[in-house]
Structures are given as structure tokens and as C-alpha cells.
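Annex B. Sample input.
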Amino acid sequence: GPAGLSAALFAARSGLSVLVLGSATGALSQAVNLDNYPSWQKRSRPQPELEPELSHTAADETVGGPGWLQVTTMQAERVGATFAPPGLMATNIEQSLQESFTVHSQNSQHSFKTRSIIVATGSSPRRLNLPNEEMLWGKAVHSCAICD
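Annex B, continued. Sample output.
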């Protein structure tokens, strides 16, 4: 989400080695509109003069949460952040006496040594399981990735 990607972007931009473990899902990945985030707005057509790094196709898709996530991920990768495959989650963290951490993933198939950890767990909206809720989601029933 916004906190984890922003932290990855700024850490990598500062020259730190950054590995992002996370999920491809979450509240922002389901946001249909993202009109309450600074400088992010719905566009009716691409604006390559403002965003030359985006192709016309990608610029058309940069509306809503998934678009913001895509553009911010590309920006973080451009400055050096590395992204693990989606869904690779940390299951155990050990701290050593040398002020470093070892992060283990599920089934201990992957381990990572690091001096710092930023935990940004994100959120997922809880559904009420009401009749017709799925049909009305994003139309009459909403959740807000930024404000909820």
C-alpha cells in the first residue's frame, strides 16, 4: 500500500538496499477511484507530456488504486528497490547480537539478512455479507483505502 511503497521508494532513493515482501491484494488494489490522494486524479486521456515514462496504454490505466500501485512500484524499482514475488510473506524474524535481523519466509524456503525492517501491513476491507453486496460494491457500497 501507500506506506510500504513510499518507504521502499525513499529508502532505495537514499541508496539503501531494499527488498519488498508483500501481497498483490489489499484495500488500495481494489479502489475503483482514487480522488483523495494528492496529485492523483482521474484522467480522460493520457498526458505523456506530464508523464513521459508512461506509454499511452499504461497512462490510460492509471486511474484508481491499481494504477497508483503500478506507477509507484515502477518508480521504486527505477531507484533500486527489489520486489519479491507477490505473496512471499515473512513468517519469522530473528534478531542477532550484531544488530541485524534474519527474516524467514513461509516453509523457510527463503531467508533474508537485514539491518532494518519497515513493517507496513496494509489493510483489506471487511465485507458485511449483505444481500446484493457484491453486485453493489464500488457503486452503492464503498470502502476507502486511505480513510478507513
